[in-house]
Amino acid sequence: MNLSPAKFLLVPLLLFITAFTFPDFHIRWNKIIPRPMSWVKDVGARQTPKGEKIFRVNDYGAVNDGKTTDTKYIQKAIDACTAAGGGIVTFDAGEYLTGSVFIKSGVTLRIDKGVTILGSQNIKDYPIIPTRVAGIEMNWPAALINVLNQKDVAITGDGIVDGRGKPFWDKYWAMRKVYDPKGIRWAADYDCQRPRLFLISRSSDVTLKGVHLQRSGFWTVHILYSDHITVNDITVENNIGGHGPSTDGVDIDSSTYILVWNCDIDCNDDDYCLKAGRDADGLRVNKPTEYVVIRHCIARSGGGLCTFGSETSGSIRHVLVENSEAIGTGNGVNFKSAFTRGGIVEDVHIRNLKMEKVKTAINLNLNWNPNYSYTTLPRGYNYDSIPSYWKVMLEKVPPSEGTPTIENVFISNIKANHCQTAIHAIGMKTSPLKDFELNNIMITANTAGEIKYAKDWKFDKVNITAKDGSKLKTEDVSNVKF
Question: Looking at the domain 270-482, which fold is it?
Answer without folding.
Answer: Pectate Lyase C-like (2.160.20)
